Amino acid sequence: MWNLIWRKRIQKMNNRNNNYVIIDIDDVLAATVPEWLKRYNRKYKDSLKMSYVRDWNISKYTVPECGDKIYDLLESKTFYNKVKPLPNALEGVGKLRELGFPIVYVTGGKPEYSTYKFKWLQKHNFWNQNDHYVQTSSKHLIKGVLMIDDNYDNICNTSAFGLLMDAPWNSKFEFKNRVMGWHEIIQNIDEYKENFL
After folding, report:
1. Which of 87, 116, 137, 197 sits most deeply, having the most CB atoms within 10 A of its CB?
2. Nearest Cα to Cα of residue 118 among 93, 140, 135
3. Which residues pair with 106 in a beta bridge?
4. Could you tell me if 137 and 153 lie in one domain?
5. Paired residues of 127 in beta bridges
6. 137 touches 114 (CB < 8 A)
7. pLDDT digits (tens, 9 = 90+) for 55-99
8. What is the pLDDT of residue 155?
């Protein structure tokens, strides 16, 4: 049922306008992995650092007794209460709005926990009444002119101009449009604009 509802919303949105900027939330706007690893290390008495995580499948780096259970840590109602915004992210989103781009926040994960991310956007002043919020792991379904994401596969599969937010888990990929943070996006937005308008 959720898939049908989201598909209808996405189709309606895509029919309106293609000048959307598609922005991932986790580790693009929100410093999710640092909080996640803090909780993991505390629970499993480990010392896993973000720089050690070189693959999208973070469970490869956990102690054997944890494995895929690391994903359960994201399901806490209080998880996003502790997650901080990434530096310059709010300013960067504001700059995109100033340039007239409608914002679509697109995030993966389980639908029943999506509410916590939405509340996080509101709490940290990212949400604007004209924005859109979509929960899907099929981000390529969203049409737009620009996508900012830390997942290499999402960037490669979108029809939008992609900016890959640098992270240890995507460092093995050669990608021309890799950005080191929001400061770089803000600094170069006019140059990027030429590529997608």
Report:
1. 116
2. 135
3. 134
4. yes
5. none
6. no
7. 999 999 999 999 999 999 999 999 999 999 999 999 999 999 999
8. 96
Task: Tell me the one-letter amino acid at 91.
Answer: E
Residues 170 and 138 in one domain: yes
Q: How many domains does the chain have?
A: 2
Q: Render 1-66 in DSSP notation, one character per residue.
A: -HHHHHHHHHHHHHHH-S-PEEE--BTTTB-HHHHHHHHHHHHHT----GGG--SS-GGGGS-TTT
Could you tell me the CATH number of the domain that includes residue 120?
A: 3.40.50.1000
Q: What is residue 128's three-state secondary structure?
A: coil
Confidence of residue 4 (pLDDT cuts 50, 70, 90): very low
Do 174 and 96 lie in a common domain? yes
In tens, the pLDDT along 134-183 reads 999 999 999 999 999 999 999 999 999 999 999 999 999 999 999 999 99
Distance, CA of 38 to CA of 32 (rounded, Å): 10
Give the single-character DSSP code of 67: G
CA distance 21 to 92: 12
The answer on 76 and 164 residing in a single domain is: no
Please check whether residues 42 and 114 belong to one and the same domain: no
Q: Average pLDDT, stretch 16-33? A: 90
Cβ atoms within 10 Å of 57's Cβ, excluding its own: 10
